[in-house]
Amino acid sequence: MKNPMAPNTVAHCEYFAKSVREAANVARELAASHEQMAKYASANRK
Question: Please, which residues have CB within 8 angstroms of residue 3's CB and are 6 or more apart in sequence?
């Protein structure tokens, strides 16, 4: 049973927000890396 007024609810939400934020940062770094690889590949195409 969920208890939205439980004292640990805020901590759970903060933990989830931090985890999702970190995952988003990793995804952005990966996307930037892929973009660089694509630029390199297209520049070195013969």
Answer: 9
Q: What's the pLDDT tens digit per position in 2-43? A: 676 777 778 888 999 999 999 999 999 999 999 999 999 999
Whether this model's pTM surpasses 0.90: no
Positive or negative, the CA dihedral 8, 14, 17, 21 is: negative
As a whole number of angstroms, the distance between CA 38 and CA 26 comes to 18
Whole-angstrom Cα distance, residue 3 to residue 19? Answer: 22
Query: What is the rounded distance in angstroms from the CA atom of residue 30 to the CA atom of residue 37?
Result: 11
